[in-house]
Design a protein that fits this description.
By secondary structure, the protein is of the alpha/beta class. It has 9 helices and 9 strands. The radius of gyration is 18 Å and the shape is globular.
């Protein structure tokens, strides 16, 4: 049964989509919220480390956990590269949020985005433009995992791949609106991660690193795929969420 939208969602809608205009005609958007559509889709964008990440093509909505570890990644990149140049790949990029954050902070970074869905690749271009970022340092390619990058190697690769086991029950606000291809990855949730673990050594430079978000329930198995080089890190809620592997 449809329920009245949460008050905080309505306030966010008024603030972020209607610039505080409480007299605006928002009946259709309130109905969308009532039906359970995620607030970020209704507003049309999501904040991410000071950026406005548009969601026109309906990629996976950036989560607070991803934002949190991306901030840790930025600190690592600052420590390692400072103002120097480096190459970075946002794999399974979706909206491009992770790569956008790197592009925004590091003027010496060449940031590549790998995304399966052409519509999301177009969205990444929009997000670069709308956030006033340097498109000349961005390289957006469409294809299956590393296929668009052939023999190219990067200093750092970051990925938030699909990692949910098929058959797991998720909230209807997720399964009813967010793309299945960005959520599920085989019976145990590790199909894409197996491929990444197998293929990533050929795409990292010497002393390169992989940062990869995983499911808290299968992250041990994911670490085993990467071997002793990988360590598990907790998210801001104290849950095992991230793998960092040095090569």
């Amino acid at each position: 049964m449809p329920m009245r939208p949460e008050r905080e969602d309505v306030e966010a809608l008024i603030r972020d989509k209607y610039a505080g205009d409480r007299g605006a005609d928002m009946i259709d958007d309130l109905l969308r919220l009532t039906k359970g559509e995620p607030l970020a889709y209704v507003i049309g964008w999501s904040p991410f480390l000071g950026l406005t990440v548009h969601l026109d093509s309906r990629p996976l909505i950036p989560r607070p956990e991803t934002e949190w570890w991306t901030e840790q990644l930025l600190a690592h990149l600052t420590e390692r590269f400072g103002n120097g140049s480096f190459t970075f790949l946002d794999l399974c990029a979706g909206s491009g949020a992770i790569g956008l954050a790197v592009l925004a902070v590091f003027p010496g970074a060449k940031v590549s985005f790998g995304e399966l869905v052409p519509e999301h690749a177009a969205l990444i271009r929009k997000n670069i433009k709308e956030n006033g970022l340097d498109a000349s340092r961005a390289d957006i390619r469409t294809g299956d995992l590393f296929a668009p990058f052939e023999s190219e190697r990067f200093d750092v690769i970051a990925s938030n791949p699909p990692y949910i086991p098929e058959g797991r029950t998720l909230a209807s606000s997720v399964t009813g609106y967010e793309p299945e291809v960005a959520l599920y990855s085989g019976a145990d949730g590790l199909d894409l991660i197996r491929r990444i673990a197998s293929e990533v050594p050929a795409h990292l430079k010497s002393a390169g690193a992989l940062w990869m978000e995983c499911d808290i329930q299968n992250i041990e198995e994911a670490r085993n795929l990467l071997g002793d080089r990988a360590e598990i890190r907790n998210d801001q809620y104290g849950r095992p969420r991230l793998l960092v592997a040095d090569y």
